[in-house]
Task: inverse folding
């Protein structure tokens, strides 16, 4: 069963398929960005910075780097610049610096 998209501005007209986000299947539309898919499904907190603070997308056009996600095994992929593909595996809230015991400050 997939999470329902409830934040689309207009009805999705293209082919729908599922992606996996943190173990939950979500509906995505062909040609849209990962960020668009997540926002359409009310996912706002995307990443955790090196200080452990959660954040969400700010600019939505690849400049702010506030939407880094772990996508298909690759770390720090910008959600706003990555086009969804069927069966894509996405993890939110990961930070490799913290996972490896690194500290800032």
Result:
């Amino acid at each position: 069963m997939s999470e329902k998209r409830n934040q689309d501005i207009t009805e999705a007209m293209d082919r729908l398929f599922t992606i996996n986000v943190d173990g939950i299947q979500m509906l995505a539309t062909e040609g849209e960005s990962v960020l668009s898919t997540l926002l359409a499904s009310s996912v706002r907190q995307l990443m955790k910075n090196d200080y452990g603070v959660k954040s969400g997308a700010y600019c939505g056009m690849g400049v702010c780097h506030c939407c880094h996600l772990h996508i298909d095994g690759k770390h720090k992929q910008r959600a706003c610049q990555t086009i969804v593909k069927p069966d894509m595996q996405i993890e939110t809230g990961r930070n490799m610096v913290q996972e490896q015991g690194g500290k800032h400050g």
